[in-house]
Predict the 3D structure of the following.
Amino acid sequence: MNSKSANKITYQIPVGPIHPALKEPVQFEFEIEGERIIDVDVSVGHVHRSVEWAGTRRNPIQILYLAERICGICSYCHPMAFSLATERAAEIDVPERAQYIRVIHQELERICSHVLWAGVAAHEIGFDSVLFLTWQIREKALDLTEYLTGNRVTKGITMIGGVRRDITKDMYPKIMEVMKYFKDNFEKIRKIFLDDKTFKLRTQGCGILTKEDALKLCACGPTTRASGVKKDVRVDQPYFAFGDLDFDYITPDILTGEVNGDVYDRIIVRLLEVKGSIDLIEQCLDKMPSGDIVSEEKIAKILSILKKVNGEGIGRMEAPRGEVFHYVKYNGNESPHHWKVRAPTYNNILPWIPMLKGNQIADIPIVAASTDPCMSCTNRVAIIDNGKKYQLDKQKLYELSVEKTRRLMK
Amino acid sequence: MAKGLPKSFKKSLWVYHCNSGSCNGCDIEIIAALCPRYDVERFGIKLVGSPRHADVLLVTGPVTRQMSEKVKRIYEQMPDPKAVICVGNCGNTGDVFYEAYNLVGPIDNILPVDIYVIGCPPRPENIINGVAKAWVKLETLEAK
């Protein structure tokens, strides 16, 4: 042992593109010394479906449905950001009532997404009962989504210049009932995630992203707010009706008084955001004015307006994972000349490198999941041990993670 | 589904889920089917971590160029008898991505698909129905 320790060997571990903690194929290259991670490299591009290219061959109404299928979890943010960009390019005014309905749907999606994430995070450290508990709560949010939009996942609610369905007075009791259900269950979830010994042991001091790194690597959304950077498009550049509503940046020091930037802080930020979203929906229901829900009802008319547009627009929104950015340029043709999408995970991939460095192999799933990457998963790891290759699949990696939880609990 | 199901209960189905470039919509509905509201584990159906343990391959997504080799490899690693279920419209037909340059799908260009589950994304009930149909197929394969 003593003689060997003088020349330490590092191992290369490729993870993915079928990978444990991610929801989209992505490939990692880890450099490992014993159990410690020394270096990480990330390569993406396995889910490239040429969406932007296809968009330049379709008309703006068709693009709404294409944009919805960029990501199934943010299926509201992408078409909405696209229509924001288009409205800016074509100078279309959105009715006041539609602005409030847009906020309600956005915050509902945020609740769905954060509760989903909480379940996935619990699963990654081997706490499956919490996965089932949170997903049961999430079903309530999906029921409400279905009640308001007609669909569970892809909502089809967006229209350029407004929304497609109104929220009428007789829907209020059902919305209030679901909000009450969330509030009743919030305390239970908070207790499990913030006070439970297992969670504290696995998440505190793990996967740290410092404020400097977060700024340097342009992280966004809850990932950067958990490192103490006050950045939220809803506050910085209010869109929809956010200017009229009362809320503020959510950083972990609101609850604990300090910012560590670890996985635990990211859990705090997301939990508080769920609470903030419930509050925002209630404010919207109170303040919603009466009026139209869309500036122009006839789709053929919108299309003929958009055909004549010559100009460009930018749409920025705070999606559940961070800032989503759409740029669109019209040239007076039926379809846009150029369309560019920048999803929040794009910014949140590079922060993985400082987060993972120095952690153990068993921490990979929870740290990678902690930025809530919007990707899909394939699950195989091959460890190259002095040229001999043996495989570590998702099961094995997951077992390693569960084992570490047990070890810590002893 | 009802026909042949009582007989089929003698064996639990283990499912391997492979994402070939889908948008996550189908994937979250698959997990929703495993969670308390729909709870397919009461039938012994569960997701496994390795294709070598699986009876059924659930494929989602339109199969991007980079993923096509990997999807094939996963299929080859599964033991016989096996069934392939394609979940979601984009795997079935291409759906909104039909003309995209980076796709080699639909999935039946690459794998022999047994059951097509439609919807974008399909509801969990629909996915469970698809798995139950795969069950019947595996039973008939085993009887031969």
Observations:
- Chain A touches chain B at residues 17-18, 23-25, 45-51, 53-54, 57, 65-66, 69-73, 75, 116, 131-132, 135-136, 138-139, 142, 152-154, 374, 376-379, 393-396, 398 (CB under 8 Å).
- The radius of gyration of chain A is 22 Å.
